[in-house]
Amino acid sequence: MRYFVLLSALFITVSAQAAPFENGDATKGKAIVDKQCSSCHISMYKGDGSGVYTRADHKVKTSSQLKARISGCNANTGAGMFPEDETDVGAYLNKTYYKFK
Length: 101
Fold this sequence. Notes:
By secondary structure, the protein is an all-alpha fold. It has one domain. The protein has 5 helices and no strands. The longest helix has 20 residues, at 26-45.
């Protein structure tokens, strides 16, 4: 029985990490990034603003850090995103740049 419980806990942990933004819609996320995020990123990193995601010294190294960064930017800029919007943004950024599993 203990083996079953440990195996179940491992499966749940792996499943939870397998798709960090599985409930997000990357298409909606891209629209939100284009509308809410790009102007600030362009002013900071020039070009199309994607340098914030692709720079060599990027600070986001896990899906949890990406979630925190999105929430922080939302709060600090007053973007007004709802939690589901943040998940959509995470889905887009993860699919396009980060590729967290």
